[in-house]
Each structure stands twice: as structure tokens, then as C-alpha cells.
Amino acid sequence: MQEKLHALKEEALTKVAQAEDLKALEAVRVGYLGKKGPMTEVLRGMGKLSPEERPVVGELANKVREAITTALEEKKQRFEADVLNTQLKTETIDVTLPGRPVNLGGPHLLTSIVTEIEDLFIGMGFDIKEGPEVETDYYNFEALNLPKDHPARDMQDSFYITEELLLRTHTSPVQARTMGEYRGNKPVKMICPGKVYRRDTDDATHSHQFTQVEGLYVDKNVRMSDLKGVLNQFAKQFFGEEREIRLRPSFFPFTEPSVEMDISCKVCHGKGCSVCKQTGWIEILGGGMVHPDVLKMAGYDPEIYSGFAFGMGPERIAMLKYGVDDIRHFYTNDQRFLTQYHKA
């Protein structure tokens, strides 16, 4: 058996030396070390050896296998090096050619606006909350003082999926959900940015999908003057210290009293121009004191708690801040438009 192993070793090493390419080398490996090769047959026959011969032959068999394996690997590395050298000689790379430029993107203008709004309100102690875009009729309408037969529902034509599911028409359901989670046990101070959907005809100032940022503050002794102070701080930080605000009476089913907020026109500084339609003011958002019925449905006692809510559209704010004249620019993905607002 030992003589057979020595003979196999010499024969295999000779075959390795004679191999002219990687294919021939692989054939040698399979022929000698494969499952049907002579080395495997030798190892299978070790069971017939005496206990004294078995360790001696086993050690020799391992040395023979290792020698053949080492010779195969060394020859393989030489072949691969030859292939690489040949490839390097025949293939050339012109390092003088200019490289392809990589155009770096940046945040979308609306993303930047929403982030700026979030940072501003976080600085005033508000939390950021999010909710589902596919909403139930209850949270989208009923929990906000809009029962099924309420005439104010005609103000918002909605995308219904079933009779009880729809694409949310505003982010106010997040406020109702958050108050419901707290069950009247602690104050709420939050804003909720996100996408909303309405069955509007797309034009320069309307879109079937747009974004909103709504805010809510519920606690003991919250007053209309607190709402005015927060909105005034927002206007001055976002549009400039010289901006003035005014509140006009309005109507929203979920707030009472309700107001619309205007800011002084940055073009004419309140004197009147074509941008503000000669009024000196530009409407920016709506808000008001949370309706007692909304507080009750969320588990808050309106005799103890009060609060204010407000909502704004980042598209409108971006249009006012940067002079964009068509809301559709935000959604058509024209890089000529978008790259104007990338910040370094």
C-alpha cells in the first residue's frame, strides 16, 4: 500500500507538470483527488489493513494528498498570473480620458420646507406625530365634529375606498388619534405633517394630492392669545422679522371660534400690490380654538381642558416664500426647477 501511494504521488506530480492550461490542470485534480480517483480508493481500502499498518498508511496518504494539492495550487496560480499578464498587455486603459460627472441630488423643495417648519415648532416645544394615509371615516370626519349628515362634508370631495375607508383629506385625524390615545389624561402639544388627498381638478393652485402641516395644543387654560403668539412667532421666524399678522373670523367645524391668518405682503410691505391683490395681506393658514365636542369625543373634559389647532399647506408657503407661480412645478420632477432650490 505504501508503494502504491508513492507511485501515485510521482505519477500525479508528473501529470501536474505536464498540464498546459487550467482545463488540463482541473482534469488532473479530478482524476487523482476526485470521488472516483485512486487516492479515494486507497483511503477506502484502509479498513482492510492491520491495526499496526493503518496509522502509518493514513499518515502517508495525507502527505501524498497534501503534496498533490500543493502542486496543483501552485500551477493554478501560475496559469492565472499568465492569463492576467496577457490581459494587461492586450487591454489598455486610457487614463487621460475625462471621467463621467456624478450629479448629486438634494432634498426636494417641499421636503426642505416641511423640515424647516418641523424644526421651528420643535423649538417651541411641539412633538412630531404621524398617522395613516388610508383613514377611517370616523377619524377623518366624525371625531372632528363632522357627522355623516353634516353639510360641511360637501366642502371636501374625498377619495373613498369603502364606505368607511378613504384617503385622508387632511392630517387632522392624527390629532384625533393622539388625543384618543391620551384619553384626556395629559396635555397634547404636537404637529402632524403628511400627504393628503382631495378630488380637486389640478391647476396652478390646486392638486388632488398635496401636503399639510397641522398643529394642536391642548392643556389647561389654553387661550386664543396663545394661538396668536405661536402663529406670530412662526410668521416672523419663517418669513422674516418684519412680517405682521392679522386674524380674521372664519369657520371650521372642528374649531370654535375659527380664524384665517394673513401675513403682510413681503413685496409691498402692506401698501398694496398685484401679488396681494392691493390688500397688503396674503392668506397663509387657518386655525382656532378646539371645539368642545372634539375634546369630549377624545376623552377630554372641556370644562377643564381647552386647546387650539391650526393647519397650513407647505406648497402654498413655498409658493409665497420663493415666488413659485404654479403648484404643479412641485410634482412634475423637472430638474431645471428643482435644482434651483438645492442648498449647498
Q: What does this molecule look like?
A:
The chain has helices spanning 2-18, 22-33, 38-44, 53-90, 109-122, 137-140, 172-182, 224-239, 292-297, 314-322, 335-338; strands at residues 127-128, 134-136, 165-167, 188-197, 209-220, 245-252, 255-264, 281-290, 305-312. It folds into 2 domains: 2-90; 109-341, Bira Bifunctional Protein, Domain 2 (BirA Bifunctional Protein, domain 2, 2-Layer Sandwich). α1 (2-18) packs parallel to α4 (53-90) and α5 crosses α10. The mean pLDDT is 86. The chain starts with a helix and ends in a 6-residue tail after the last helix. The chain contains 11 helices and 9 strands. The chain is 40% helix and 19% strand. The strands form 2 sheets. Strands 1-4-5-9-8-7-6 form a 7-stranded mixed sheet. A two-stranded antiparallel ribbon has the order 2-3. Its EC number is 6.1.1.20. Pfam families: Phe_tRNA-synt_N, tRNA-synt_2d. It catalyses: tRNA(Phe) + L-phenylalanine + ATP = L-phenylalanyl-tRNA(Phe) + AMP + diphosphate + H(+). Keywords: Aminoacyl-tRNA synthetase, ATP-binding, Cytoplasm, Ligase, Magnesium, Metal-binding, Nucleotide-binding, Protein biosynthesis.
